[in-house]
Specification:
Blueprint lengths: L1 E11 L4 E9 L2 E7 L6 E6 L4 E4 L1 E6 L12 H11 L1 E6 L11 H11 L6 E7 L8 H7 L3 E5 L12 H14 L2 E5 L3 H13 L5 H7 L2 H18 L2 E4 L5 H12 L4 E3 L1 E2 L7 H7 L12 H12 L6 E2 L7 H5 L1 E2 L2 E2 L16 H12 L4 H15 L17 E11 L18 E11 L2 E5 L2 E2 L14
Helix pairs in contact: 2-3, 4-7, 5-6, 7-8, 8-10
The protein binds zinc ion (ZN).
Zinc ion binds next to loops.
Enzyme class: hydrolase
Family: Belongs to the metallo-dependent hydrolases superfamily. Allantoinase family.
InterPro entries: Allantoinase (IPR017593), Amidohydro-rel (IPR006680), DHOase/Allantoinase_Hydrolase (IPR050138), Metal-dep_hydrolase_composite (IPR011059), Metal_Hydrolase (IPR032466)
Length: about 450
């Protein structure tokens, strides 16, 4: 006898969409069954002909806990993730106090957050100029990758120069880890920012022009070359440009183990939103043109990306519109950069991809579950609908229409660039290791149901 049978589903995997049923036992998928085969189970969940996706993996989120819980915390951030269909959140080490840069801090963070999580979570380890000796220790604890910046970053975290990145990659390569980079060239952006200020261009077009595609391109191409030189596995974070994606694709075709993610906002919002609506749409790299959004989808479809992440970067209302940590916002360059999207990412990707562009749902199962799980060493437990995998399932009603409102967001700060967006296709039930954690936008499980997932391979 099984614990749960999810019946009447259209089961979506990276390979196919098939009518069938899924049997769950002890939190894992016990059997994937053909339509009509319905063994006994303690509980039956009727998928009503809707899609049943593998739980999505958010490869890039800032939950800000511990340290900046007034921006976001585990309770709110993982609840929002679960409602939205991300069953595993890979949490960033920065915007933590202290930033998670050694093995002791790994344990302290886990102790602080574990009783508050609704979704499963993994940790990115920190990679900063002075912690190279600590990388192996974090790897051994189960960090799935190491996050670094090749561009400007907030004062509580430091960027690497190319020399430091080279040494870090050599070290990470030795123990088989993966280095992840925010790729925007530091000097190019700093110069452009100064130039915009010199020219009095303190408007949103000035902000966009301060972070051109070439800044992203230069840093990405350099990281690809460093990856080739060192043999280190590399992940390129939040790619905003199809031209950058093309370079990554070419490196992949040469046989380099370079993975990359884009984000739902780069696949749906544009530079026009930044110009017209300002602060809530500020992020880095910035939003690009509609033509680039359309071309970026081609790289989702062809499998270049191992992740459609949220890059959930929450902040308070004041940090978008008034002041940050006591410093008054004088112009666009002072505004907090970041978009809150962990609750909306899946439905936005579904609407933009499967509804508007008629892309097969299998593409999303591949780019949001299977490929990220493989890239971050958790495949085998996460990322697929197969016997033995964790029963992380998301039922998506493809006909359900939605409008994202501030009140519907479970964040600490209920503000987002996605508020006001309308679309079709909504996660209506989220199961994590056999626990029904969310239904119809509401949490249905106890706090602490989410667990730390350590790297498997
Ligand atoms: Zn980020």
């Amino acid at each position: 006898m099984y614990d749960i049978l999810v019946n009447n589903g259209k089961i979506v995997t990276a390979d196919a969409v098939t009518a069938g049923n899924i049997a769950v036992k002890d939190g894992r998928i016990a059997a994937v069954l053909a339509e009509g085969i319905e063994p006994e189970a303690s509980r039956v969940i009727d998928a009503k002909g809707n899609y049943v996706f593998p739980g999505a993996i958010d490869t890039h989120a800032h939950l800000n806990d511990p340290g900046y819980e007034w921006r976001e915390d585990y309770e709110h951030g993982t609840a929002a993730a679960a409602v939205g269909g991300y069953t595993t959140v890979i949490d960033m080490p920065l915007q933590n106090e202290p930033a998670m840069t050694n093995a002791d801090l790994f344990d302290r963070k886990e102790e602080k957050v574990s009783s508050n999580a609704y979704a499963d979570y993994c940790f990115w380890g920190g990679l900063v100029p002075d912690n190279f000796e600590d990388l192996k220790g974090m790897h051994d604890k189960g960090c799935v990758a190491f996050k670094s910046f090749i561009g400007p970053v907030s004062p509580d975290y430091s960027s690497l120069n190319y020399g430091q990145a080279y040494e870090a990659m050599q070290r990470i390569k030795e123990f088989g880890g993966r280095a992840g980079f925010h790729c925007e060239d530091y000097s190019l952006i700093k110069w452009q920012e100064a130039r915009m200020k010199r020219e009095g261009r303190l408007d949103w077009q000035g902000f966009l022009d301060s972070r051109p595609v070439i800044a992203e391109m230069v840093a990405t191409v350099d990281m690809i070359e460093l990856a080739k030189a060192t043999g280190c596995k590399v992940h390129i974070c939040h790619v905003s440009s199809p031209d950058v994606a093309q370079k990554i694709k070419e490196a992949q075709q040469e046989g380099c183990d370079i993975t990359a993610e884009t984000c739902s906002h780069y696949l749906s919002l544009t530079d026009k939103d930044v110009i017209e609506n300002g602060p809530l749409f500020k992020c880095a790299p910035p939003l690009r043109s509609q033509e680039e959004v359309d071309r970026l989808w081609k790289y989702v479809e062809d499998g270049t990306f191992s992740g459609i992440a949220s890059d959930h970067s929450p902040c308070s209302y004041d940090e978008k519109f008034k002041e940050i940590l006591g410093n008054k916002i004088e112009n666009v360059f002072d505004v907090w950069g970041g978009i809150s999207g962990i609750q909306s990412g899946f439905q936005v990707a579904f609407n933009e991809g499967c509804v508007k562009r008629d892309i097969c749902p299998s593409v999303l199962a591949d780019s949001m579950a299977r490929r990220p799980a493989k890239a971050f060493g958790i495949y085998g437990r996460k990322g697929d609908i197969k016997p033995g995998f964790d029963a992380d399932l998301v039922i998506v009603d493809p006909e359900r229409e939605w409008e994202i409102t501030g009140e519907s967001l479970l964040y600490v700060n209920k503000i987002s660039a996605f508020a006001g967006m309308k679309g079709k296709g909504l996660p209506v039930c989220t199961m994590i290791r056999g626990n029904v954690v969310a239904e119809d936008g509401k949490i249905t499980a106890e706090k602490g149901v989410g667990e730390l997932i350590r790297r498997l391979s």
